[in-house]
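Minimal example, chain plus zinc ion.
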Amino acid sequence: MSLLRHDLYIEPIKAFIDPRFPVERALITHAHGDHARGGHGSVLATPETIGIMKLRYGAESAKSWQEIEYGKPLKIGDVTVTYYPAGHILGSAQILLEIKHQRIVVSGDYKRFPDAMIAAFEPVPCDIFVTEATFGLPVFQHPDPMLEIAKLIKSMERFPEQSHLVAAYALGKAQRVIGLARQAGYDKPIYMHGSLVNMCAYYQSRGIDLGDLRKATGLAKDELKGALVIAPPSAMKEVWSRRLTDPIHAMASGWMTVKQRVRQRGIELPLVISDHADWNELTQTIKDTGAGEIWVTHGREDALVYWCEQNGLKAAPLHLQGRDDEEDES
Ligand SMILES: [Zn+2]
Ligand SMILES: [Zn+2]
C-alpha cells in the first residue's frame, strides 16, 4: 500500500486531497472552486478555508467539518497530517503527510512573493513534493505587484474624470488588489460589484483591513466618476459596467503577461498580479523542499517535469482532471 496515489488518494486513511467528486473524507488545501467542492462526508481544512466553503456552498455542503490550524500535527490512523501556509489566498495550505520514514507534501496552489494579508509560504522538507505548475514555463516571470498597482494609481491620477474598472476574481484576487491599493496609499472608497461584498466582508472579519468598501450597484452614474471599481471578470460585460462613465478597463491576473489574453478581453490596463508561483518561484521551491521526487499537476506539467529531470530529480506529471486555469483565480 502506498501512502499517496497519483490521484491524491491517501490509501491508509481512505481520504482524498482536493477531490473533484463527493467522497467520504476530504482534505482540502484551499477554497478555490477547482480544489474545494460541496457534497463531501467530512472535510478537514483550515478555519478560513472552512469559513469560505460555508460562505460559498452553505454550512450543509459537508456532513462534518474539522478545523486544523497551521503547524499543528493531527494523527489519523498511522498517518500524521500537518497543514502549512501556502501563501496563495486566505486559509490556503500545503498538506504534509507522514508515515514511518516517508514525508509527502501536497502544496495545492502557492506563491512565494510576500503578501502582507496572509500567512507566508513555508518550505517543508519532504521526500515527495507535489507542486502546481500554473505558470510552469520559463517565460513566466511575475513583476513586483507594487509596481503593477502603481500603474493603476498613476492612471487614476492622470484620468481623474474616468472610472477605473478592474477585473479580479472574487476569492483572493479582488481582496489582494484592494489590499495592494491601500498599501500604496490609496485611501478613497473602493467600489465593488455586488458579488464581491460577502467575500470582502469575510476577509475583514478575519482581521484583514481593506479600508472603506462600498457597493457599486445601484449608484447614480455621477457617483462613480473617477472611482476605482472592482468586479469579477464574468461581470465586466454586464449592463451596470456600461453605466460607468467611459471606464478604463483593467484586469489583475498572472495571465496579463500574455498579450493575446489582454487583447481578447479588451483590457487597456493589464496588471500582472498573480497568486501563483512563477517559473523561478516554482524551481526555487522545489530546491528548497529538498525532495528527490516531484509530482507536477495543475497547468504546464511538461516543462517543469523536464527541468526536474535535468536537475537529477525523479518527476511525474499527474494529469488530474478538471484543474483548468480559466476557472482558477490566477
Ligand atoms: Zn487556487
Ligand atoms: Zn488551483
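The mean pLDDT is 94. The CA atoms of residues 292 and 312 lie 8 Å apart.
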